[in-house]
Amino acid sequence: MITLGIETSCDETAMCLLETQDNQYKILGNIVHSQIETHKEFGGVVPMIAKREHIKNLPIIYEKILKDSGVNENQISRIAVTNGPGLEPALWTGILFAKDLGKRLNIPVIPINHMEGHIVASLLSTSSTQKDFAELKPLDFPTIALLISGGHTELIEVDNIGSYEVLGATVDDAVGEAFDKVARMLELPYPGGPEISKLAEYARNNNIDKQISLPRPMIHSKDMTFSFSGLKTAVLYTLKKIENVTVEQKQDIAREFEDAVTEVLISKTKMAIEKISTQSLIIGGGVIANTHIRKSFEQLAKEYSLSLYLPASGLSGDNALMIALAGTIKPSNDYEGFKADGNLSL
What we know:
Elements: E1 2-7, E2 12-21, E3 24-34, H1 36-39, H2 47-69, E4 76-84, H3 88-105, E5 109-113, H4 114-120, E6 134-135, E7 143-148, E8 153-160, E9 163-169, H5 175-185, H6 192-205, H7 229-240, H8 247-275, E10 280-284, H9 291-303, E11 307-309, H10 321-329
Parallel strand pairs: 1-4, 4-5, 7-10, 10-11
Antiparallel strand pairs: 1-2, 2-3, 3-6, 7-8, 8-9
Helix pairs in contact: 2-3, 4-10, 5-6, 5-7, 5-8, 6-8, 8-9
């Protein structure tokens, strides 16, 4: 069975052709078109510009993925498309494209929660096209998933694929959003997250003196709720106290900010691990590409003797492969009336 995955929740126009049989998969085609250069001058994603770019890119990418994979569109068995959460104008472009194509090919169109996609992405070993079928990674339940991205910070108990309970989420800024906002304060290029990481890594490797101290929001609360708005504000007040910010001070702030975020994420995840009897931990979302955060969770998994599931290269950010895989797991019911939902929850 071949599933076409479509992802347009933010500023990536992505498509994937995934062939599955039993517990095996073969990636026939996987394309992610980023709009970073388009949005860079605005310092962030502009929803209506993202919508315009998706509308332009979707038919082009569809023709390319068919040509590159050698798949005839009549071989496609079903379509899986992100219907939330995300930017609603962007989501609608993928949904309408999928519904029109599904109607023309007379195949089912399945709505997929973007966050579920990030969970199942951890079961894949590669994002590259393959000649042969491969096994999905085995996963025992229940497990815990921490989803950290530009729009989301959530701890989730996963009793099975399709069965989720949110243990805690951010009450304000998502962790990736906080990275980008702090990067703008430091006058770093967009996207800001990787730029902060570069400065922080330089500060650690070169033993830059620690002059800045930032709070660890809600680290001592007895729940698994996150908050990063106050941390962002603390950076703003710190910068206001400095007349002329030097490169070294930026490096110090970046390191302290990254340390604060990491310590909060680790602390809350420990609470989840100790509450849920689990032998595994899933980390998904674009922020796990951060080297320091990734290493910290690798150490946490060793501390608790957990199997750690991290997305393969190319699968931490938004992509259609995770959407296609989630679509193979869900039943092909009648979803004809589904809509875009920018605040869709698991």
